[in-house]
Design a protein that fits this description.
The protein is mainly α and 234 residues long. The chain has 11 helices and no strands.
């Protein structure tokens, strides 16, 4: 392989495109990482954020390679939307629970939540990253994906850490973050190849309607379960 292609303008332009695309599309992922980590003790929060973010990036590299094929599968986004709703409800319902200071299961539970949510929310995001990689020389595209997504890890970690601090001061952000997952779930469901055409033919504002329904389900059901859990503890 001619190593000079790694120093050419096409390589650096593609690398910059991947980093920018991933930063712009990772805001919702940072919200989930912060939400999933917020009940952990401070020393475990940092570990959960780091390992959750790193594992999510590696998973995203793998997903990006097969993104086009995955997104074309019918019913995949419907399943993803349902799981995303479930995660949003659980994160909101558990928002007042105290973490056990010595529970190692909590940190692995947080990392698992981060991984699943990132996988579901990245189904669309990876398309943009894959497209950005296509700008580079063909021989370097896999390397571009790994380097570009890898460099975005500290940026996502920084965003998650900042959100944790803001959530402590403004708890309403937890509700807004859970609502964001509902919004993403509604949009994902409408875009599933199995039902996309029929739904959008039947409704002009299908996206807005289903996104609103997703937000409502997560916030209403999550708030209900949160209150129910609080009453049980009394």
């Amino acid at each position: 392989m001619d190593l000079s292609i790694f120093s050419g303008p096409a390589f650096w332009a593609a690398l910059l495109s991947i980093i920018v695309a991933n930063i712009l599309l990772s805001g919702d992922n940072a919200v989930v990482i912060a939400l999933a980590s917020r009940n952990l003790p401070p020393h475990q929060q940092k570990k959960a954020i780091f390992w959750g973010s790193a594992a999510a990036i590696i998973l995203r590299v793998i997903l990006t390679i097969t993104a086009v094929q995955l997104l074309s599968l019918p019913y995949l986004k419907i399943v993803g939307a349902v799981l995303l709703i479930y995660i949003g409800v659980q994160l909101l319902a558990d928002s007042d629970e105290e973490a056990e200071m010595d529970g190692s299961s909590n940190i692995w539970g947080a990392i698992r939540t981060i991984l699943v949510a990132d996988l579901l929310m990245s189904l669309d995001n990876v398309i943009a990253v894959a497209a950005a990689a296509q700008k580079g020389p063909e021989e370097t595209r896999f390397v571009l994906l790994i380097i570009g997504l890898g460099l975005s890890i500290p940026l996502i970690i920084f965003g998650s850490t900042m959100l944790l601090k803001v959530m402590d001061r403004f708890p309403v952000i937890i509700t807004l973050g859970a609502g964001l997952l509902g919004l993403l779930a509604g949009g994902m469901l409408v875009e599933d190849p199995a039902i996309k055409d029929s739904i959008q033919d039947a409704m002009e504002d299908a996206h807005m309607l289903f996104e609103g329904i997703g937000v409502a389900i997560v916030i209403l059901l999550g708030t209900y379960l949160k209150k129910k859990n609080a009453n049980k503890e009394r």
